[in-house]
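Cross-posting from the chemistry board since nobody answered there.

I work mostly on the small-molecule side, so proteins are not my area. We synthesized magnesium ion and want a rough idea of how it might sit in this target. Sequence and SMILES are below. Is it possible to get a predicted 3D structure of the two together?
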Amino acid sequence: MKITEIHVYQKDLPIVDGPYTMSTMTLHSIDTTIIKIITDTGLTGWGEVTPLGPNYQPQHALGARAALAHMAPDLIGHSCLNTLLLRRHMDALLNGHNYAKAAIDIAIMDLIGKHHGVRVCELLGGATSERLPAYYAVGVGNPDESARTAIEKMKQGYQRLQFKIGGRDIATDIEVMQKIWETVGRKVQIVADANRGLTATQAKQFSLSCRNIPLIMEQPCNTMEEVKSIRSQVCHPLAIDENLESIQDVLRAISMDVCDAFGLKISRLGGINTMATVRDICEARAIPHSMEDTWGGDIVSAAILHVAATVKPEMLEAVWTSGNYIEEHYDPENGIAADSGHFNLPTGVGLGITPDESRIGQLLASYS
Ligand SMILES: [Mg+2]
């Protein structure tokens, strides 16, 4: 099964009830890049990459499309069945840019699943569950509105709620967290995610002032070194997310003993196969982790679910996709969205997503 055509599309995904606010940005819509790979067998595979705006991380939408334009002509004729050789070929064509390679990797895994008549999760070792726990992420808000959302989402079945903090007076973040704790208590796991937005001093102030709350602090500061510097001085378990851009970063975080848990993003790490490698490293070292991505549509959401379904259940903290935050699904029948605080694993072969091509945006480039 060889690649004969690659088509690249762009679409803006509007955010439900937007804008969505984090410590470093406010977003009304997300720029996603979709790829369609056609093979000499007639099978079609779908991939997607959706950086969260241009200043969340070094990855950005134009960068993804430039990297794909650079690699795509040299991928024509390559076998889809040899994923390791394809990965090495992409690395030889272009240094870094794991997020653009992730879109190719996802499409290739979709194709291999369809070729063998199995789901992607079965290519990765098998699903432990058809229903996966979701977490809900709540943008930076004031105490009353955050507490209201916490109650609403708890009633919908979410057992883990993540609240964005940072980018403002730390006293307000503390006030918000105390209000949430008064409102929902131990009924849900509370996570405070600063997305790198706190100084070490602010992170310590936040933790000491919330020592009565059994929350998890996620990515409080910018670098692994800053997070490591506060680890022994805070009252809460620490997770890192944005600092993990490669397998090498994962190994470095483990060797530095920088945190208690990981937030893993499939595109940033390089796709389904890299995510599966990190899954195995986490299992070997008993590191709990969430599986998620930097937003995106049904294609990348399905990819996350297939990997997450193969994680040892004790290690899987929760799953996040932006399916509930995006107004439109590419696949009107099998679109990904959480229901009662859980995601259902897609049932069809490959990723289990069949995009309606009228919903995938504008065709930007074709290679054959
Ligand atoms: Mg995070």
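Reply from a structural biologist on the board:
Welcome over. Reading the output above for you: The longest strand covers residues 3-14. The pocket of magnesium ion is lined by residues 193, 195, 218-219, 241, 263 (CB under 6 Å). Happy to explain the token format if needed.
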